[in-house]
Design brief:
The protein is of the alpha+beta class. The protein is built from 27 helices and 31 strands. It binds (3S)-3,7-diaminoheptanoic acid (B3K) and zinc ion (ZN). (3S)-3,7-diaminoheptanoic acid binds next to strand 20 and helix 2. Its EC number is 3.4.11.2.
């Protein structure tokens, strides 16, 4: 397969002015008639080159005349010599088969409805077109079908029996095209924008899901208000539609005026959804809505610039969620995610810059690095330039580039202009892969305290030597009595090694370093458990307060794993103080109670030069859970009773309480024979507590009966059933995981073609660290078998799940060779997709 390089970017030979599409829908023979007005690009003249894949071409005309053309599996070309000299109209008719499209890219069918997914390069499976984001056109779409709801982008123009026409006045790249046709029900509302324009809002769902739309609708309206108030961005069409689709490769898609969502990311009700789902729905609705400005009105010149829209939009949705809920809690959750997914990626064979320099299949680069590290870069930029300059830079960006397809350089130029700063070194964050290691030493003399930082970024594939990055390091200083003697101050580190001195101090302070996780680095700091416990008790920065608890937990677990030590008493006491401190937010207490994941511990051991043993990690973590349960035995039952949040409301308060309550319950279940959890399972009126109590039971080796009654209650609800599958795999004991997965794949409700269900089982297997890495290699083989089968149906989801193997070089020789064998077996599959081939090849390194 061909590798595409950023350095080879060239403007297209032709621009698009207007596009008229007529769809005559039929499951296996949909006709797509296109009329495209092309304008030659005077700056780069050449042949007319259109993308097209899996299309049956029925007719082609240019300015009404037939013309010579060449067609391959991927392109249609008309030689420049055969084209009219100026602008011309291209007309073609193609036939496609949505029903047999199991890749879920292009136009496909899901539970009887038609829907599309075009980003990144799916439009070429719908018709011949210059399918690249820098080519933007004004689309008019006619949909013909007997289905009652017919939707496309923009505003509705006209409709009649069996047809509807839509016109999108905003020019856009083809990846934002969308079409939906189905027997759907609208949950309707409206929104008045800041300039007084009335917008019609709809969430379209299948019959039976109408009662799961209210929360998503409220989140949409809150997002629209927030973008007006915080960024001054107003919505720009008469209508905004969201459609829920059951079969979807990712979370959701920001198509102009017609967002399409994985039903798991928009539907929510207290009975069927957990607090985590509510929070995710709120965040994703906001994310897709925010793309209307960061992504749609201003888009990417090419796919290497993906982080331009994704990093910024993730940053925006994170700020929104923080405003809606709690910034400290949200920040801790973000960092947990970042470390679990992005640091993991950055540490292995798939490490790549936030703006990659090459790709084979762009769908493989919708990664934690592009999204989450991309968002961290925006956060650092804001910290470095300050709030005022940040918003001024954004305003300039919106103003200057509205309606254009641009680059990271264009984005940064706005901030260079408003601040007068040289952002050349900062720009390295986009080009240099790998997580910087930051270490610090402390010295006190006279009245001065000095912090000396050293940074180093390890090599990553294709980048052996790294340069120092610009690091905003937020620090505070705390006196022995717990008072803060230096409030949060941002140090700007630009060198490999750099010192910062604070004078006028009466006594040696305790430093709180990297507050709010001000830069995406791995900080090493040699401090003893007493200092950590002091900061856990006294740090005014909630992130670092939590971080100290986490480091204590990690040290305790590492000592248990490597030296067979008993859990440190200091740690148990410090944790108990947090657990029982009513002045702290329950959500924060729950997060502090959470233990580092097995995967995190494996990486930590590997970084320290040891070979992680998954079974030993599992056992130590289980032993610590039991030790915590016994150490807290006198307070757990009372806490469990007190934390009843009352009537279910999916807000920060209620979910925080329930989150702590479920953490308490999972420990309590280890010492009360499951009594409390069984009681709650019987009485729960919401999914958070019903699933939480079931998980607590399963985590204590119980819950067989509850699992069966859960099935009997919910077998008809596909999203709840995803949880039923997932929970069993997630809590399976290491030596049973493969067998449980094998059994579940034989279940009548298992369906590999549905990405949610496939991920519920195989994503959970990959996340069950000790189970996946079971000594006999059964987990590896099972996943490889499933991926080999899925690849012919759905390359995108297959390639995504290959990341389960990305950490293979951490482990012992036996495991490495078993994994290598499985990767080679996948690679040997005839006709393996480009997506999976690229992923497996990169993982093998
Ligand atoms: N932009 C889409 C992701 C498309 C993924 C293509 N494989 C969703 C989002 O980030 O909002
Ligand atoms: Zn996005």
């Amino acid at each position: 397969p061909q590798t595409i390089y950023l350095k080879d970017y060239a403007a297209p030979h032709h621009w698009v002015d207007t596009v008229h599409l007529t769809f005559t829908l039929a499951p296996q023979a949909t006709r797509v008639l296109s009329r495209i007005a092309f304008v030659p690009n005077a700056e780069n003249p050449g042949d007319l080159v259109l993308n097209g894949e899996q299309l049956t071409l029925l007719s082609l005309r240019i300015d009404g005349e037939s013309v010579e053309y060449a067609v391959t599996d991927t392109h249609l070309t008309v030689a420049q010599a055969d084209l009219p000299s100026g602008a011309f109209t291209f007309e073609a008719e193609v036939e496609i088969s949505p029903q047999t499209n199991t890749a879920l890219e292009g136009l496909y069918m899901s539970s009887g409805m038609y829907c599309t997914q075009c980003e990144a390069e799916g439009f070429r499976k719908i018709t011949y077109y210059p399918d690249r984001p820098d080519v933007m056109g004004v689309f008019t779409v006619r949909v013909e079908s007997e289905l009652p709801v017919l939707l496309s982008n923009g505003n509705p123009v006209a409709s009649g029996k069996g047809w509807a026409e839509w016109h999108d006045p905003w020019k856009k790249p083809a990846y934002l095209f969308a079409l939906v046709a189905g027997d759907l029900i609208a949950h309707n509302d409206s929104f008045t924008t800041m300039s007084g324009k009335e917008v019609d809002l709809n969430i379209y769902v299948r019959k039976g899901d109408e009662d799961k739309c209210a929360f998503g609708m409220a989140a949409l309206k809150a997002s629209m208000t927030w973008d007006e108030e915080v960024y001054g961005r107003e919505y720009d069409l008469d209508i905004f539609n969201i459609v829920a689709v059951d079969d979807f490769n990712m979370g959701a898609m920001e198509n102009k005026g017609l967002n399409i969502f994985n039903s798991s990311c928009v539907l929510a009700s207290p009975e069927t959804s957990t607090d985590a789902t509510f929070e995710r729905v709120e965040g994703i609705i906001a994310h897709e809505y925010f793309h209307n400005w960061t992504g749609n009105r201003i888009t990417c010149r090419d796919w290497f610039q993906l982080c331009l829209k994704e990093g910024l939009t993730v940053y925006r949705d994170q700020m929104f969620s923080g405003d809606m809920r709690s910034h400290p809690v949200k920040r801790i959750e973000e960092v947990l995610q970042l470390r679990a997914r992005q640091f993991r990626e950055d540490n292995g064979p798939l490490a790549h810059p936030v703006r990659p320099e090459s790709f084979v299949e762009i769908n493989n680069f919708y990664t934690a690095t592009v999204y989450e590290k991309g968002a961290e870069i925006i956060g650092m930029l804001r910290r470095l330039v300050g709030d005022e300059a940040y918003y001024a830079g954004c305003a300039l960006y919106f103003d200057r580039f509205d309606g254009q397809a641009v680059t990271i350089e264009d984005w940064l130029a706005c901030f260079a202009q408003v601040t007068g700063r040289d952002l050349a070194q900062f720009q390295q964050w986009y080009s240099q892969a790998g997580t910087p290691r930051l270490s610090v030493t402390e010295a006190f003399s006279g009245d001065s305290f000095t912090l000396t930082f050293t940074q180093e970024t390890p090599p990553t594939p294709g980048q052996a030597v790294k340069k120092p990055q610009v690091l905003p390091i937020a620090v505070g200083l705390i006196a022995a009595d717990g008072t803060e003697v230096l409030p949060t101050t941002v140090l700007e580190m630009t060198q490999a090694s750099q010192s910062f001195t604070f004078s006028g101090l009466a006594a040696r302070p305790t430093a709180s370093i990297l507050r709010d996780f001000s830069a995406p680095v791995i900080l090493t700091r040699d401090i003893d458990a007493t200092t950590r416990a002091f900061l856990l008790a006294h740090d005014t920065d909630p992130f670092n307060k939590w971080e100290m608890g986490r480091m204590l937990a990690k040290d305790t677990l590492i000592a248990m794993i490597t030296r067979n030590e008993a859990p440190a008493g200091d740690y148990l006491d410090a944790l108990k103080a947090v657990l029982t401190d009513d002045s702290l937010d329950p959500a924060f207490r729950a997060l502090t109670l959470g233990l580092p994941s097995q995967d995190d511990l494996a990486q930590t051991l590997f970084d320290a030069g040891q070979t992680p043993d998954p079974m030993a990690i599992y056992e130590a973590r289980e032993a610590l859970r039991h030790a915590l349960a016994h150490h807290f035995a006198d307070v757990l039952p009372d806490l469990f009773a007190q934390l009843d949040a009352g009537t279910f409301k999916p807000d920060a308060d209620g979910s925080g309480k329930r989150s702590l309550r479920m953490s308490v319950l999972s420990l309590l279940s280890l010492i009360d024979a499951g009594k409390a959890a069984q009681g709650l399972f019987e009485s729960a009126d919401n999914m958070t507590e019903q699933a939480g109590s079931l998980l607590a039971l399963l985590g204590a080796g119980k819950g067989e009966e509850e699992l069966a009654s859960f099935y009997a209650q919910w077998f008809h609800d596909r999203l709840v059933m995803d949880k039923w599958f997932m929970m069993q795999v997630a809590t399976a004991a290491p030596l049973e995981a493969a067998q449980i997965v094998a059994k579940l794949t034989q279940h009548a409700d298992f369906n590999a073609k549905n990405p949610n269900r496939f991920r519920a089982v195989f994503g959970a297997l990959a996340a069950n660290h000790a189970g996946f890495h079971a000594p006999d290699g059964g987990g590896y083989k099972l996943l490889a078998d499933a991926l080999i089968d899925l690849d012919s149906l759905n390359p995108q989801t297959t390639a995504r799940l290959c990341t389960a193997f990305e950490t293979w070089r951490r482990y012992d020789g036996d495991r490495q060779s078993m994994i290598r064998d499985q990767l080679m077996r996948i690679l040997a599959k005839p006709d393996l997709s480009r997506d999976t081939t690229e992923m497996v090849t990169r993982i093998l390194g």
